[in-house]
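Notes, Module 5: Reading structure tokens.

Key idea: the token line is not a picture. It is a compressed description, and you learn to read it the same way you learned to read a sequence, by spotting repeated patterns. We will look at two proteins. The first is printed below with its tokens.
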Amino acid sequence: MVSIARQEVPEDALLRTFRGAVHPERWGRRGDCFSVTVDRTVSLADFVLAFYTSPPFKLERWILRWLLRAPSTDADARALAQGSAQQFSVWYAGARTPTQLLMCDRYERTRSWFRVVPLHDGRTLLQFGSDLAAPPGSMRKNSMSGVRSLLFSLHTGYSHVLLCAAATRA
């Protein structure tokens, strides 16, 4: 059984530090971080590929293809994971390091973050997080409407499903 933990977004996470966008002041207010430790060495490329080609995410890809005309394939996911592509469906790579990848959506409303942390005993900590842009004109740190709050709660459950699926495949 995979045990997903919620933790604070690390200080050095691209999800927290990257401010590139049309409205950089709207980022960094609602970020989350979920993690799981797997009993093997996993590269960032392996993690990203496993995530974007997992069965639950393939359903999301299908929905995005039909609703937003944003097709994507497993080959596209592989190219992104390996660093030879900068776009995938509705996202683009905002920033990348050897252990982290930050994906930004083309509408500048959401971000997804991946990180692998090699552990001393051959295991790997996989981290996945997201952030929502604050609504325009909102300067309060945790300002969120009831509908946005509900969607964020549903997103938390979905994040668990996606991270679990990626952890078993990576």
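Here is the second protein, with the sequence above and the tokens below, as before.
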Amino acid sequence: MDKETLVENMKVLLASSYSVALKAQNYHWNVTGPNFGEYHTFFGDYYGSVYDFNDLYAEHIRQLGSFTPGSLERFSELTKITDETAVPGAKFMMVRLESDNKVILSILKGTHAAAEEFGDLGLVATLEDAIRFHSKMSWMLESYLA
């Protein structure tokens, strides 16, 4: 695995992760209904944690000697997450977030394999932390929808 391929994987991860965090923040701001408090807290915790990972991804792109994308236009070119322009109901918010979380997990696993092949153990550890977080969120989101 060459460094440039790893950097490109990281940029897609950052853009996609930023997109899912922004979507969860939108849901946090706009959720309504009888379970408002629970959903509001869940979405807030989710996007807060994802934003923390985004900073680590961006810093690692810089450590690899590349500049980090930082505009909405560039993120929209790179992301694998579909934008949310409407304000859906609470259940649909959970459905969309569950689906998007799976996309993030897939990107994380591919990037993890690339980082392992490249031999970047610091990045491998960061990605393993993110995989653990998103795996936990996956079963939690599935439980909300059961």
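Summary for the second protein:
- The chain has a mean pLDDT of 97.
- The radius of gyration is 15 Å.
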